[in-house]
Structure formats: structure tokens, C-alpha cells
Amino acid sequence: MSIDGNALIIPVALPEALERLRLEGDPSARQLPAHVTVHFPFADEPKTKIVTPELKKLVGRIETFRIQFDCLDHFDMPDEVIYYLKVSSTPQLVTLFHTIWNKFRAYPPYEGKHQTIVPHITLARYARPVSEEKVARLLEAVEQHRHELHWEISEVEWVNVQPGVPGCRILGSFPLKRKAIR
């Protein structure tokens, strides 16, 4: 699967073993870093001058926060199974999602196709039928690195991805508000 368009993402670093599995199992991994999607599709590039100041202001009001791995799960799609690291919803993550979704209603998340949005990091997309060996490799790697699967979230990136083009262009990077030191 190839991604096309603009998205707001929270980039995260995965342990090397999981990143290797992601690069092997998810074709879009060559286009995007490991991440939690905040909003896709998002505003087209001609809207950059209008959207950028709004994003900076909205994201800058939300304090940095921590997310952590909850479980390995999957989405059953007609032709494939998408395996992902589900992350625990935190009040700050929910606030970030809803603040952006509510402000930019012209761009419904996933074009309004899903009733529920599950915060996650995609690891692999496997065509049906999925071999037990592939699933076992994912489970083993996740269990080995479970203690490393937590992240301090301090920014949101606005990225552009084009079909067949490796990597993505960063249209903007928006820092969250630093927590006050007490």
C-alpha cells in the first residue's frame, strides 16, 4: 500500500528489531517514520500559509505528554491484516486529536470512513492468509521489547507523502507546550 497526501503525525522511535519488522512488513514504512497518525488526510499544500499558524497555536497549547504501548492488535481488512501497536489513550492524546479534528472539520479523519479512531503504530500489513510464523515473529519481538515501548511526545509533524517517492517532506513541525518545572 502506498500513502498519498498530507498527514499530521507524531513520530516515534521503535526498538531496532521492531523497526526492522516494520520495514519488512509495511510498504508505507519506506515513506514515513514510525508514528501515530493524528489526522489523515490533512490540508493540501496551497493551504500551508493559512493552516500553519493555526496548528502552531493549537498544538502549542497542549502540554508534552507520554504515551505507552497497550497491546499488539490488528485490523481485519478485506485483502490484508494490519498489525499494530495499540497505544493507551491519555487525556492529552485525546485532547490533541479532538482539538485538531474540531478546528479543521473540512478534513474529517480518514475521510469519515471509521466510527472509532484507534491510536496506533502500524507494524505490518500482511496479505491474506497470514502465516502463523509472521505473527509469531511480531509477538516475540513485541514481548522482547515491551519495556521500551513508551514515548515522550513533544511535537506533531505535518508531512507530505507521494506515491512511489521514498521518504516524506515535512511541511511543518509543531512543538507542544513544555511542562512547567515544579
From TrEMBL:
SUPFAM superfamilies: LigT-like
Origin superkingdom: Bacteria
GO molecular function: ligase activity
InterPro entries: 2H_phosphoesterase_YjcG-like, Cyclic_Pdiesterase
Keyword hit for RNA-binding: no
Pfam families: 2_5_RNA_ligase2
Keyword line: Ligase
Name the UniProt record assigns to this protein: 2'-5' RNA ligase
Source organism: Sulfobacillus thermosulfidooxidans (strain DSM 9293 / VKM B-1269 / AT-1)
Lineage: Bacteria, Bacillati, Bacillota, Clostridia, Eubacteriales
